[in-house]
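can u do me a favor
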C-alpha cells in the first residue's frame, strides 16, 4: 500500500508551471506530493478530487 502524501497541491491550471516548481521543491525536501497534472475540475463539477482529499496525513 502506498502511503498517503504529505501535501495535497491545489492550483489553477493556468499556474501549472509555477505549481510544478512547488511540487518539485516539496519532493526534493522528502515530502510526498499529490497533484494531478491532467485533472480538469471544471469539467467534473469540482467533485473529482474529493475521494482523495481525505487521504492526506494529519
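np, heres the sequence
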Amino acid at each position: 500500500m502506498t502511503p498517503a502524501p504529505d501535501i495535497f497541491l491545489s492550483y489553477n491550471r493556468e499556474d501549472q508551471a509555477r505549481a510544478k516548481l512547488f511540487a518539485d521543491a516539496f519532493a526534493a525536501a522528502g515530502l510526498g506530493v499529490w497533484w494531478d497534472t491532467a485533472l480538469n475540475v471544471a469539467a467534473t463539477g469540482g467533485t473529482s478530487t474529493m475521494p482523495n482529499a481525505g487521504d492526506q496525513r494529519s
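The CA atoms of residues 10 and 35 lie 7 Å apart. hope that helps!!
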